[in-house]
Specification:
about 325 residues; 16 strands; 7 helices; alpha/beta; globular; Rossmann fold; single chain; Elongation Factor Tu (Ef-tu), domain 3; 3 domains; seven-stranded antiparallel beta sheet
Length: about 325
């Protein structure tokens, strides 16, 4: 998880839909199958990378299945591809299986709900640079806010499989319990043991939940939950690393905590990545220049989406 992808690794591929399961009010998991060159390209897809989906030819669901707040906007033409991270990737001989966790928020994601087994999807990828694991780390602290969960679920799986000596702890937050993008929470005994979310518990990873309104887990921001845990556990700073993905205000707070604690921290930024390959220049991220007072703009799609938290200039 350290080498950057090259242009030769990217491509335009066709994936076949295996399943499209609704797991919440507006949450779905889309299963995909890649074969041939696509299977080879996505076999080594790293947590934090993304792919661009063409949804322009996908149909709308029946009127009764269209949320009231999307009735007016759902008729808009889908001109640009949409970027999605994968929540899981499995390579098996000459096939690669991937899953996308998505939330219905607009006309494109609304159309995704109509994809059914056997349908084809045009996908560009793998794109961007994913999370990295520096040497010498013994504890990884994963912080996900809302739909920042997918790449961190993928990362938790990779840690379990490839880095068994690194302890992983997850902090997942959302506004309310209904906004948590997970299929289910475990019973009280499991939660008392620190295994709150099934998606992470299956990898043997402990997790804590925070909701702004207190409807599940810690009442308050997930960054407050994390800071409280950090102050109590006080892990060796040089051997711990923070990974975060979620809304930008959350990432700014995580970066602030990492700076205060002098801990390594990688954050996955979110931008409107219209092309995904650096042509449209629409996903600029303001970054510091090491050892200088000046700043530069980097592209989220090519230089990111994962950045060192010390590098990003957050707008207040």
């Amino acid at each position: 998880m350290s080498e950057k992808k090259t242009l030769s690794d990217k491509g335009l591929f066709c994936a076949t839909v295996r399943a499209n399961k609704q797991i919440g009010l507006r949450f779905y998991r889309l299963g995909l199958e890649f074969t041939g060159d696509g299977a080879k390209a996505f076999a080594n897809f790293r947590p934090g990378q993304f792919a661009e989906f063409d949804l322009s030819g996908t149909a709308l669901p029946p009127k009764e299945r269209i949320p009231e707040d999307l009735v007016d906007v759902c008729q808009r033409n889908i001109l640009l591809r949409r970027p999605f991270a994968f929540v899981d990737v499995n390579a098996d001989k000459n096939k690669t299986f991937a899953e996308v966790l998505y939330r219905v928020v607009g006309p494109a994601s609304l159309r995704m709900t109509t994809l059914a087994a056997g349908n084809s999807v045009s996908i560009i990828g793998p794109l961007g640079n994913g999370f990295r694991v520096p040497e010498g780390k013994k504890r990884a602290l994963l912080i996900c806010g809302g739909m920042g969960a997918p790449p961190l679920q993928h990362l938790a799986k990779v840690f379990t499989a490839d880095y068994p000596d690194i302890e992983v702890v997850v902090f997942a937050g959302a506004k309310t319990a209904n906004d948590l993008p997970f299929e289910g929470r475990l019973d009280n005994i499991s939660q008392q043991l620190g295994f709150s979310l099934m998606e992470f518990a299956k990898y043997g990873v402990k997790s804590q939940v925070a909701t702004d309104d207190g409807s599940a887990g810690f009442e308050g921001m997930v960054t407050d939950c994390f800071k409280q845990w950090l102050d109590k556990s006080n892990p060796p700073r040089e051997r711990a690393i923070i990974y975060a993905c979620g809304p930008e205000p959350m990432l700014a707070k995580v970066a602030e905590i990492a700076k205060e604690k002098n801990m390594d921290c990688q954050i996955s930024m979110e931008r409107r990545m219209a092309c995904g390959i650096g042509i449209c220049q629409s996903c600029a991220v303001k970054c510091r220049v090491e050892g200088a007072q000046e700043t530069v703009y980097k592209l989220c799609c090519e230089d990111g989406p994962v950045f060192d938290s010390k590098e990003v200039v957050f707008l207040r």
